[in-house]
Amino acid sequence: MDSAHWGWAHPGAVQWLEFWAQLDSNIRFVLICEDRQSLICRLVEQGEAPANMSGHLALWAQNHQDMLKFHLRNPDRSLLVWDAEVQSQPSTLIQRIERDWQIPLDPALAHAQTLGHPTALLQHIALRILSGHPQTAHIDHELQSLIGPSHWPAASDQIETTDLIEMYGHLQERTELQGQLERAQKKIDDINALRTQDLEKAKAEIAATQDALAKNKDLQEESDLLLTQLHQVQEELEKYFLMNQEAQEKVKVETADKEGALNKLAAEKKINVSLKKQKDEHLAAKRRALAKNNELQKESDLVSVQLQQVKEKLEKLIWDNQEAQEKINKETAAKQDVLNQLATEQQISATLKKQKDELDAAKQEALSKNKDLKKASEMVSAQLEQVKEELEKLSLANQEAQEKIKALQDKSKLLLEQMHHAQEEQEKYYLQHKERQIEVQKLQGRWLRAVQSHPELQDFEVLEILSESKADLTAQWRINQLQVGNVMKGPFEFKTFIENGVTGLVFTKEAKGLSPIHRWPLIAAKEPQLSIIPVKGKEDPKKRSVTLLQLGTTDWHLVRQLTDKLIKAVSTAAMAKQISHGPALLEGLKTQQQILDKVPTLLRFDDIQLFGQQNTDQKSVIGLRLTHADLQGLKANPFEFQIQLNLAAGSAMTSAHLIFDEKTVGNPFENWKYNVKSSAGQAVMALQLGPKGWNPQTWHALSPLDQQWLQNTVRLLPFMLATLQNQGVKLAKGWTTWVQAATEMNNWSKLSVDLPKAPITAMDVAPSMLQPPHAAPVPSRAPRKPKPKPKPKPKPVKVKPAKPVVTAKVVTKVPQKPMAAKSKSVKPAVKVKAATKVATKAKRRTA
Predict the structure, then answer these.
(1) Distance (Å, rounded) from C-alpha 766 to C-alpha 95?
(2) DSSP state of 692
(3) Are strands 29-33 and 78-82 parallel, antiparallel or unpaired?
């Protein structure tokens, strides 16, 4: 923020644009727009559900509509750009900011990014989604008309075969990856099952070991009780030792039995040693050891009974008890070893449990990935099914198209044969027509010779006087036929009168509305008679001059030709005998001819039609068509153009555009060149007219004749609108708005035009608020070349020589230095004075 120029960017700032614009007039706005197709592709890649697309598109439409309105209200303080251009070509935006706003920026700080294009399938999905939301398409069209076409690739309703093959390859790769993942998952499940079985076995062994420890504890307690009993027996034996001496003989007899018992004890000792070695084995060996311990207990009980019976062998029994004590000590040590082994096994179990947890986590992660891959596979499978269905439809459509093509080929062959046949007949008729022309020329020659010998035989373009009044200086005339341009007039009657030394013509409208006048002037539309005389009247001084200005092309030529015919007829000796006020009439006709020759250059036309209109909150467009448009010999039939009013809040007009399509190339515009494309994609020339007059860059690219045609068109707009209104045509915007706009445009067109700041190379300045209407699309055509005018046939009447040419004069002054932004406006340095007349057709061709 310490630098001279700084800024910020935030998507939420769109709704605060008006606030920031009113807060500080020095703030400039760069409005970055995103294409609808780019938005949908980005949302699909992010995994957005199709049901949520409507909300995203509505938010997109609201934001971009707000940016469009703000840009149209503030064209000098805002720039509309595409986001793809800003990312891929930031230097272009920097140059535009420097050019339009004179804000120096460092292009080195901007880094261009390479943007990838989406796949054909993704574009197709986006196009399918957008087809269900056509209500947002007009915003996209308006953005493209203002910014230009976006660099986003155009999506097609159909997917190319190469793209389908590529998508099928990706699907096969994903299928193989899915199979590999399933096989890996199966292996992980098998390993988990084996580890689970091992863990169950370990748990069973630990439980058995714990049972064995509990049983060994019981055995230890029994051994201690047995030792106590043995001590008591020893004391009793010492007491009865003397008493048992008598029974020694019996003891000797029973010694063999006791030795057998001792041998059993030795065997049991060996068994205990083997049990000590087998404690490291599984639960079955431990159970056998416990069984043997139980047998040892029983034998110990038996030994106790025998000791009670054989007290004389006390010493041997004590020795046996000592050995039993040592055996118990050894068994206790073995039990301690077993406990240590159990602790080790518990550690191993803990390690196995930890590994199992890790395996479970890995399994969960693999399951989640498997679910994602499964979803992706299902989506791709569904898309593949759709693609297969579309391929089947395309195949059927292709077959139908092949059949249609075959039918068209057969039809074209038949048409070609018919065309050859027609061409042969045309050549035959052409030769016959040539022969007839030669015969007609011969007959015309004979007719001319006959008419020269007998003038009373001629009735074509013959004037005859029906009645005349010397007192009123009036005469009633009748003409059989009169060729006016391509129209044959007659027979019809008219009246001549003289006023202030000038002859005038009076035409009458019949009861059925028939009249030689093609289009009755608007100022006398309800009157049964039309007086044409270049002299101010007593009742309404302006009525007669307005009548002359409102005459159509054919009617103007009709008046001029009638005047010429009357002058020639009244000059003859035969006519001088029939009319009493012949000299006054002839002088008045010549005066009228001289005055009409000095009438200022004016664009005339026969008919006007409204061929289309379109209205929005920001603009109102109408299309007009003029027939037989004529500007002092420069003709255009028909002449079509469109007028667009650019409106601000409250329907106030800020500027206007006159739009001309390719049909006006060369005729009437010599320097026609397109500077914008219409909504239908057609090249048009759009000329902007605003409160400061014409756009200098486009105005000076036109030729003087083009400028004069354009100025006359604008100045005739109020009369054109009044003629349409008199015809009963209705405008959706209302006649009041358009009549006021036409008057304001007329005033703007009279302002002088400055010289352009940059050299004029071509008309490349596009209007900032232009979008030609959809209501009146114009089919594209090749530029029209002016048709060569056929050479006129020789006539006995002499042609009047052309009058001198008056050309446009341009007064140039030295341009002043540019003033500060806050200073008052300076008058334009260059002024253009419109010429009062243009060159005649012959002179213009020579130039």
Answers:
(1) 18
(2) T
(3) parallel
* DSSP per-residue string spanning 807-822: --EEEE-PPPPPPPTT
Higher pLDDT, 282 or 231: 231
Question: What are the CA-CA distances from residue 503 to residues 119, 432, 450, 588 (Å)?
Answer: 81, 49, 34, 4
- pLDDT at residue 264 in the model: 67
Classify 844 as helix, strand or coil.
Answer: helix
- Identify the pLDDT of residue 456: 53
User: Above 70 in pLDDT, residue 14?
Assistant: yes
List the beta bridge partners of residue 164.
none
Which structure tokens are listed for 417? 């044969």
Average pLDDT for residues 665-686, to the nearest whole number? 86
Q: Are 474 and 497 in contact (CB under 8 A)?
A: yes
Q: Is the separation of the CB atoms in 722 and 716 below 8 Å? A: no
Q: Which residue has the higher pLDDT, 241 or 275?
A: 241
Taking the C-alpha atoms of residue 57 and residue 510, their distance in angstroms, rounded to an integer, is 64
Element (H, E) at 647: strand 639-647
* Residue 833 to residue 384: CA distance in whole angstroms: 71
Residue entry with tokens 């008052």: 824
pLDDT confidence of residue 15: 76
Contact 582, 475 (CB under 8 A): no
Q: CA–CA separation, 668 vs 658, rounded Å?
A: 14
Distance CA(445)–CA(466), nearest Å, equals: 31
Q: Are 697 and 760 in contact (CB under 8 A)?
A: yes
pLDDT greater than 70 at residue 39: yes
Averaged pLDDT, 103-128: 74
Kindly state the tokens that stand for 84. 């793809």
Concatenate the DSSP letters of all residues of 313-375 into one string: GHHHHHHHHHHHHHHHHHHHHHHHHHHHHHHHHHHHHHHHHHHHHHHHHHHHHHHHHHHHHHH
Q: Report the interhelical angle of 161-240 vs 283-309 (nearest 10°).
A: 10
- What torsion, rounded to 10 degrees, do the Cα atoms 217, 220, 225, 226 define? 140
| Residue 658: pLDDT over 90 | yes
Radius of gyration for the alpha carbons in the chain, expressed in angstroms and rounded:
58
If one counts every other C-beta atom within 10 angstroms of the C-beta of residue 396, the result is 10
Task: Determine how β-strand 482-484 pairs with β-strand 474-479.
Answer: unpaired
Tokens representing 144 are 């493209």
Q: Check pLDDT > 50 for residue 127.
A: yes
Which pair of tokens denotes residue 756? 């352009």
Backbone φ and ψ of 315, nearest 5°: -65, -40
Q: In terms of Cα–Cα distance, which of 120, 85, 93 is closest to 109?
A: 93
No. of helices (H) and no. of strands (E), the chain: 20, 21
Task: Kindly give the pairing relationship between strand 502-508 and strand 492-499.
Answer: antiparallel
Contact indicator for 44, 56 with CB cutoff of 8 Å: no
- 278-322: per-residue pLDDT in tens? 656 656 655 665 676 667 667 666 755 665 665 666 666 667 667
The pLDDT of 584-596, averaged and rounded, is 91
Share of the chain above pLDDT 90, in %: 13
CA-based max dimension of the chain? 210
Q: Is the pLDDT higher at 823 or at 175?
A: 175
> How many residues does the structure list for the chain?
847
Q: Of the candidates 206, 213, 207, 204, which has an alpha carbon nearest to the alpha carbon of residue 290? A: 213
Q: What is the pLDDT of residues 426-444, one digit of tens each?
A: 888 888 888 888 888 788 6
Task: Summarize the confidence of residues 446-463 as an average pLDDT.
Answer: 63
Contact 110, 91 (CB under 8 A): yes
Tell me the pairing of strands 693-694 and 809-812.
unpaired
Confidence label for 748 from pLDDT (cuts 50, 70 and 90): very high
Task: Find the angle CA(301)-CA(303)-CA(309) to the nearest 5 degrees.
Answer: 110
